[in-house]
Amino acid sequence: MNEQPPGAREATAGWTTRRWLRVGVAVTLAVLAVLGSLGVGAMARTSQLTDEIVDRRGPALTNAVRLETALVNQETGVRGYGLSGRRDFLEPYARGVTDEREALRQLDVLLASDAPSGAELAKVRDLSRRWQNRIALPIANATPDRATALAAARTQEGKTTFDALRRALSTQQTHLAERRAAASSDLRHAMTLRNWTFTGIALVILLVAGLAFEALRRGITAPLARLGQTAREVAGGRFEQPIAVTGPADLRQLGSDVESMRGRLLKELEFSETSRRMLDEQAADLQRSNTELEQFAYVASHDLQEPLRKVSSFTQLLQRRYGGQLDERADQYIAFAVDGANRMQVLINDLLAFSRVGRVLNDHAEVGLETVVGRTLDNLSVAIEESGAKITHDPLPAVMGDATQLGMLWQNLLSNSIKFRRPDRTPEIRIGVRAVEDGLFEFAVTDNGIGIEPGFQEKVFVIFQRLHTREAYPGTGIGLAMCKKVVEFHGGTIRIDPEHTAGTRVVFTLPVEHSATADGAREAHP
Fold first, then answer.
1. How far apart are the first and last CA of the chain?
2. What is the pLDDT of residue 522?
3. Could you tell me the sign of the dihedral formed by the alpha carbons of 70, 75, 79, 85, in that order?
4. 439, 400 in Cβ contact below 8 A?
5. Residue 75: is its pLDDT beyond 60?
6. Average of per-residue pLDDT values in the chain
């Protein structure tokens, strides 16, 4: 701020930015109010004089001239009629009478507040009446013969009376012209005063604006700039740099708070760096663990194939060779072993296929879903024929993806719709598709089967989650989990439509083109 005496600096030391702004705005408004009142006064005076000239002085002079013209026309018409005795000479007189009345009416209104001009108008009106009564009306109303004699008899009187009237009209016009000139002179002076007043207002506004700008620069922007500069230095890593604390009280408080924060940052920086390193290490360990887990699932399922085939083969051999030769319980035990080996074989195969999604199968190209669904229907032809299922679909588009994985997706979805059918009705399965925003197709596989309770519509996508016993519906509980993994690997989403209650509707999306989400999914499954 500007240099102040010590007492003034102490008095304003506790002022905040808001208080400085309030004081500055109040002073500025007071100055502008004074200047505005001066400007309004100058404008009002100029407007008053302009109105007086335009609305009163100018029209009054014009009507005075019209009045004189009307009287001259009357005098010309009466004199012509008196000399010739022809009534057509009275036409200028008749028009002059009408014009005189209109001019007098206008002058009465315009000069109502002007006593001297009103007195002159009254004198003109009296002289006009005298001339009318003594000369104009008697001659105009007389017969042609009588009018000629009357005009000759009153020639001198008429001339004297009308000359007096013309002198009164001339005096009136002269005085009206002088008053209009005086008003014009006053208007010029008022306009000059107005121009100087507004010039002074503009200079004062510029001066106030300059002072306000300088006060803001010294009191607010400069302290803020210093505070921002030191804060940026701290943000850039120079945590030993102290924060500048200057300016109004609230800016100083802000600077102190930032300085306190800098101190806390110095203390917490080392802890934050240590925590970040630990998190990075944990993230790396988690990624490595996930990779090893997937590899373990693949290796375990792959390596279990050979011993499981031996167990299955020998149990089936025992069943064929010794079936019926042992007691009933032995046959039951052998059947249990054969069934368990077969179920284990199916489970391992499904687990192996699940672990391969995104790891082994990773051949993205344009895939025609008409071909994929057609191949899937051929694979399921036996189940379709046995169940009598009716499967229809919309025209299916081509999408970007892996043909093998998409075949697994449709195989699981359609086989589930056939498997989980109602025993009392023919399965009806409908495949719908529509384009949605963000370059995606939305597919819906709708059936009229037993449906899925709302509480289980999220759990069915978890691996090994079953809603029914193996005796009721065979399977391993991997199918929908594999569907979810395939769809997410392609950059889409999958869900159960909760609004469809007459069966099940599985809704999922697939990209029209190669997607960044699918890239991220493949990077996560090397």
1. 66
2. 38
3. positive
4. no
5. yes
6. 77
E-only strand ranges, 413-471? 428-436, 440-447
Q: What is the DSSP string of 202-223?
A: HHHHHHHHHHHHHHHIIIIIHH
| Residue 192 CB coordination number (10 Å) | 12
Residue 391 vs residues 40, 397, 429, 442: alpha-carbon distances, Å: 87, 17, 5, 18
Indicate if the pLDDT at residue 4 is higher than 60: no
Bridge partners of 506, per DSSP, are 445, 496
**Inter-CA distances, 115 with 110, 111, 179, 399, Å:** 11, 7, 13, 100
Dump pLDDT digits (tens) for 338-390.
Answer: 655 655 555 565 555 555 555 555 567 788 888 889 888 888 888 888 888 88
Classify residue 143 by burial, with Cβ atoms within 10 Å: 0-12, 13-18, 19+. Answer: exposed
Assign 300 a pLDDT band (cuts: 50, 70, 90).
Answer: low
270 or 388: which carries more pLDDT confidence?
Answer: 388
Q: How far apart are CA 64 and CA 323, in angstroms?
A: 144
User: In the numeric block, which tokens belong to residue 30?
Assistant: 């007071």
Mean pLDDT computed over 115-139: 86
**Confidence band (pLDDT; 50, 70, 90) for 465?**
low
Rounded to the nearest angstrom, the gap between the alpha carbon of residue 467 and the centroid of all alpha carbons in its chain is: 50
Q: What is the CB neighbour count within 10 angstroms for residue 168?
A: 19
CA distances (Å), 243 to each of 216, 225, 388, in order?
21, 11, 81
Q: What is the pLDDT of residue 431?
A: 92
Specify the DSSP class assigned to residue 90.
G
Given a contact cutoff of 8 angstroms between Cβ atoms, the answer to whether 315 and 338 are in contact is yes
SS (H, E, C) 295-351: HHHHHHHHHCHHHHHHHHHHHHHHHHHHCCCCCHHHHHHHHHHHHHHHHHHHHHHHH
User: SS3 for 364?
Assistant: strand
